[in-house]
C-alpha cells in the first residue's frame, strides 16, 4: 500500500490590505473578525503541522492559545513572498520530512473546513505535485487559494521576491498540477474591498 504524504498548513496573516482601506483581517464580518474564519479552519485542518505567519499581536495571541506555531513578520511591505518563506522555513525546522504545504489566506471567509480537508486528503492520495482550488467547470488557469505545493518545488518558493505568492510557481508547472473543483464558487471569493458580506450557510 502506498504511504500517504504528510502535509502542513500555513496561514498567511500578515498582509497590509492596501486595496482594502484598513486592516482587513481584523475587520468585523458578520460579528466575527475575518482572520477568525481562517483560524477556525486551521484548527480543524487534518494536517501534521500548522503555522501562522502574522505581524498582528491579536492574531499571534489567538494562535498561541490554539497551540499553533507562530512566525512573526513585522515587514509586510516586502510582500506575500516573505510570509510564505517564513512559514515554510518554520515548517521545515519542525518537520523536515514534510511532503507538501497547503497555503491558506485570511480573506476567504466563505471557505469551509470540508474543502480544506478534502484538498489535504486528495493530495495525500494523489500523484501530482501541485493541487489547486478551481471553481467548478473552470480550468487550472483560474487556480487560486487555497493551494497545495509539494516539497518538489520548495526551492522555487524560497526564490520568490516581492508581492508574489505560490501562483507564480504553479503557473510554471501546470503540467504537474491537478485541479480540485469547488462547487460552491463563493468559497473562493477573496474580499478585497469593504462590501457587505452575506452570512455563511451550513
UniProtKB/TrEMBL annotation:
MobA-like NTP transferase domain segment(s): 9-175
Organism annotation: Acetivibrio ethanolgignens
Matches recorded under SUPFAM superfamilies: Nucleotide-diphospho-sugar transferases
Record protein name field: MobA-like NTP transferase domain-containing protein
Molecular function as annotated in GO: nucleotidyltransferase activity
PANTHER family: MOLYBDENUM COFACTOR CYTIDYLYLTRANSFERASE
Pfam families: NTP_transf_3
